[in-house]
Recover the amino acids of this structure.
DNA sequence: ACAAAAGTGTTCGATATACACCCATGT
DNA sequence: ACATGGGTGTATATCGAACACTTTTGT
């Protein structure tokens, strides 16, 4: 207990943001190569210190913006990692977030990163600190959420075809889904609506474009979307 | 970014532990009355500062032990609350946990608490800091977990009757369950086993006592226990 | 013409839900 | 004897899974 006055702290707080995107039919995450010690030269999840008067989510969004130039993307707190030995410099507790973005963003290396690149989830390099554990955790959470909620849309552009949406689910969940069952479920879930527009330019018939229904509820006591 | 050296921190880290128990057919949580400023005299979730070389979970277990004398109970990280204004003393980030305990424990007030008492979830008093939000979040998570996993056992003694188990679920989920369906599901889920012993001393037939199967898996891709 | 991809229903098995009585035991 | 509470099975509705063909369009 003893909550009456703040103790002098040798303590730092960071946020790390696992950023996912779909690209070339693969799930990818953004990694930076560390330019400084410790773990200089190793790959890491982008992140940094929380500023003095900044909430955790604002800090995470700031990091995300510095790396990708994106605002207003899907972001969710994941878990807080606080093992006393996780950082050799001292006590550094990190609040991990995960973000889902859309499209082909050129990453920008921050001041502490030599490079920033998209890495496919399969075949990741060794990671600095406990970042492997953080990434594994984020991936589990992404798959879990995808089965229960409509969060998959966050990885697609504003308008998409049902085939593209199904492909996104298949890539992340890792196994094929039945086309007719998929379409029925996603439509009955009432989370997307037709735009009235079509995608053509391909061999075959034009495909109806859909958009996410901003007024969709989902989530609360929702039945599993893909059991 | 700038992760090369630790900044001087005016920052404190606490853990807060929402402790649930079942008592008198009600769900209760342990609250302490604050003995010091800020929020002196108001009710709060038990918690305190994380020590220098202590992991977050160890800190949470220590707080739990100080309040209840219990070790080895169910404990799970909930969420990290870090709004810069949540504590008037300065920047205090708290990692919230929730714990499930069993039986009639006499709470012990810590050094910063004037009293520690069990409060039924319905009709809670005003809480200090952002503790109302933390408690609401914990409650949502408890209900959610109960529907999908077998975590309800953590609120019961080692041996229990099916009627007691069903009552626990009904209290927490808030609506009645069909006796025959409940028994079928919980037995088919294969998470409990007969002890061979019976509870008697009541009017009516003796009730078989069950125990949690320690080798039960559950959780991973488990079907919803009570849809 | 041909290849690629969009769109569309039905059947069958599994699971969830609703529902009522008998009997053992303690008072 | 009576009140309390433990234990048990079935019928129906709903949901999930498997499955194939036709049509459109670009090359």
């Amino acid at each position: 207990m003893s909550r009456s006055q703040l103790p002098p702290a040798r303590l730092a707080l960071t946020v790390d943001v696992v950023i996912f995107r779909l690209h070339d039919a693969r799930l990818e995450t953004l990694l930076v190569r560390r330019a400084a010690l410790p773990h200089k030269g190793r790959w890491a999840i982008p992140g940094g210190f929380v500023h003095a008067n900044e909430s955790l989510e604002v800090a995470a969004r700031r990091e995300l913006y510095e790396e990708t130039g994106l605002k207003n993307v899907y972001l969710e707190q994941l878990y807080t990692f606080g093992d006393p030995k996780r950082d050799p410099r001292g006590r550094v507790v990190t609040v991990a977030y995960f973000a889902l973005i859309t499209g082909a963003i050129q990453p920008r290396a921050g001041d502490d990163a030599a490079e920033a690149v998209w890495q496919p989830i399969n075949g990741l390099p060794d990671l600095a600190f406990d970042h492997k554990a953080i990434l594994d955790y984020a991936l589990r959470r992404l798959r879990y959420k995808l089965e229960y909620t409509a969060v998959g849309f966050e990885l697609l552009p504003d308008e998409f075809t049902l085939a593209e949406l199904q492909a996104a689910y298949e890539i992340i969940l890792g196994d094929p889904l039945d086309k007719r069952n998929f379409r029925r479920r996603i439509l009955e879930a009432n989370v997307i609506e037709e735009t009235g527009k079509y995608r053509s330019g391909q061999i075959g018939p034009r495909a109806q474009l859909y958009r996410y229904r901003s007024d969709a509820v989902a989530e609360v006591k929702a039945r599993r979307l893909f059991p």
About this structure: The CA atoms of residues 68 and 107 of chain B lie 5 Å apart. Chain B touches chain A through 47 residues (CB under 8 Å).
